[in-house]
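FYI - complex with (2S)-amino(hydroxy)ethanoic acid, inputs then prediction.
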Amino acid sequence: MTASISTIMASLAKCSQPGSGVTRLPFTDQHRQANAMITALMEKAGLHVSLDDAGTLVGRRQGPEGAPTLLMGSHQDSVRNGGRFDGAMGIILPILALTDLKDIELPFAVEVLAFPDEEGVRFPTTLIGSRAIAGSFDMDVLSYHDADGISLRQAMQSFGLKPDNIPQLDRRNSRILGFVEVHIEQGPILEDMNMPVGIVTSIAGVDRFTISITGVANHAGTIPMEKRKDALVAASEMVLAVNRLATESNGGKATVGQLGVFPNAVNVIPGQVDMTLDIRFDNDASRDQLGEDITTAMVAIAAEHGTEIVITKTYSQAVTPCDAVFREKLAEASRQVQPETIELSSGAFHDASAMADLCSVGMLFVRCREGISHHPDEMVEEEDMARAVEVLKRFLLDLDPDN
Ligand code: HGY
Ligand code: MN
Ligand code: MN
């Protein structure tokens, strides 16, 4: 008896650090456990499984000699205390679709990719596996390190990988039909419209920064207020400025998600604050402008408080349009599970954002409860996941590699 999709997702969710929700970071024991589970499901689907040197698990179904390859999949990693569907569902559903089509010839090869890192939570970079395949991986990020001082290179090597081979993963000279990613919507639109699935039109662009504010740590009881260079007061004003400028930007989103205070002691004036900034917009020019407004405001606030500031852009991804042919074919396929189709843009970015440097990309969103995501309460109903598998099967059966 085949386990229900929800049961599979619940088992995969157990590959997590202890605590509420799912915390599965790249190149960890939890990642290894997840890869073992995904490998078993890929093998059941008749896929040949391998792990590439960027940490992407590749499940390949051969096609006719010389036929192009359709790429599918998503990311295995999660945010901290995240949900069980973000990323992982986009790996499992195509595997289940291929399991059902095991005995049916397709005129192309298919690969399901379980990317190691899309969230960029452990290391200040992101889309590691997809950028390696798309040929846009920056080898400098191998020197980036996590909160424990472990470099990305060390983490990959202890995972059994040879990161120096990453440039060889570039697939830009191979015959790729495209990349199609299934993903939880992470928003309320499909639920509001009472639609199980939706077709993505474009994926938001994103800029990410690390910001270091340096003041003077000193005794909380002896230094008069007017003589302080309090890094946390400066940082707090910056956080409020980020929120105000994004709110006034008419569609932009900006978030300070991480903030560390040093020395973080009850009786010491904070000497150092390190924080992150994530800026999104549905067009590149507005995102650049919002970034400029925010960084200008931060520099002015730092000066007002006599503190130093270093702003480093750690990641940038342009707005990614989804391919018109894939949008149409996914819409056709989804009409078999719902009479109407709906198109919507994605405020989140995805591995498809990076894969667009390699090939045409398409995305299928699946309804989630109350739009909740990046949270333990993230939920996708069994029947909606089953519908998405049916859409994928129809999409695969109707896809003609020659047009
Ligand atoms: O941040 C994002 O948009 C994605 O969930 N990594
Ligand atoms: Mn995701
Ligand atoms: Mn996510």
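The longest strand covers residues 205-214. The chain has a mean pLDDT of 96.
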